[in-house]
Amino acid sequence: MTTGTPDPPALSPIGRRAFLRGAAVAGGGAVAATLAACVPAGGPVWTFGPASLPAPGGSPAVPSPSPAAISHAATPAASTAATTDPNAAAMNEEHDRSAETRVKRFLAGEWEKAGPYGNQPLEPTIDGDFKVFELECTAFEWRIDAELPPVNALGYNGTWPGPVLRVTEGDKVRAIVRNSMAESTSVHFHGQALVNKMDGVPFVTQPPIKPGETFVYEFVAKPYGSHMYHSHHNAADQVGRGLLGAFLVDPKDARLRHDRRYGISQDIVWVSNDTLGGFTINGRGFPATKPLTAKRGERILVRFMNEGQMIHPWHLHGMPMRVVARDGYYLGSAEFTCDTLGVNPGERYDVIIDCDNPGAWAFHCHILSHAEGPQGMFGMVTALIVQ
Length: 387
Description:
Residues 1-80 have low confidence and may be disordered. The strands form six sheets. Strands 12, 13, 15, 17, 18, 19 and 21 form a seven-stranded mixed sheet that branches. Strands 3, 4, 5, 7 and 9 form a five-stranded mixed sheet that branches. This protein has two domains: 16-113, no CATH class; 116-387, Cupredoxins -  blue copper proteins (Immunoglobulin-like, Sandwich). The two termini are 22 Å apart. It is of the alpha+beta class. The protein is 15% helix and 33% strand. The protein has seven helices and 25 strands.
């Protein structure tokens, strides 16, 4: 993995609203050039009310401010506040400095500096008719952000999310799960039509996998589509701390595969979570989230998977998303186009994006307290860069 990145170019001050209207950025010289072309010369002047937004990594339970708490200076009320509150200008300048610093870190490739990245494909070994995956459950330290202390995570094979397991409809799958943690666990293959004893629910279909023990799951992969695997034991804690991953089942009929049906050039797994480390995309929070990059004219697939406990409405600036599958099932004539897509806990949505609008485009959860705070953007924010 590349660890060195070029120094980012100097940027003019960027307000958070200007950025969220389309000036998201990411690492690399071509991306930096795109950013320079996209950032407006100036942004709106605005003032803060009470500092009630959650700080990065803070509790989601902190209430968001009332509409009156944040106002634009273009309104008479805001103009009056700016002249009567001696702290308003200083607060505004401090926010802008912090927000710009975070953007520069994103531009400089923060996601590479934070350490290993999850969602890496795991190739199975072959044992007769079975495709065999070995998964070890361990505790480890994980960085949500390169400049924040690591968190105490759990995961499969040492990453969060765990490795991407990919098979074809009808394959016989054997998952050998070794528990090297200090607590019991299990694995549920979410969305799969499993025989009951392979469902992974302790005390219902199996005993828990105790520390030091191994459990072997065997099943036939069906139905096809975007699915997940995760703990189903003390799950609010264990899944929230990283025991999760993507389980992709390609259709047996090659004509039904996304690359054949839609002509996609990239297949991107996007796993959201909202427990350990706050609001994360693929185990990272902005500015350490990994940007999506594409060339103009490319068509890409994004597989949204919500492993958290809250709904997250994903909003892409600059171009729409075509929603083609839900929970792995093709929508067919029910396909629809949108720019904001709410994904509930446990749901998966497959969306197609025609990257026809050049620029650096913000891609974020539109529950704003999951993406912005007094120090600038954090958590569930990344960018789609069309070059």
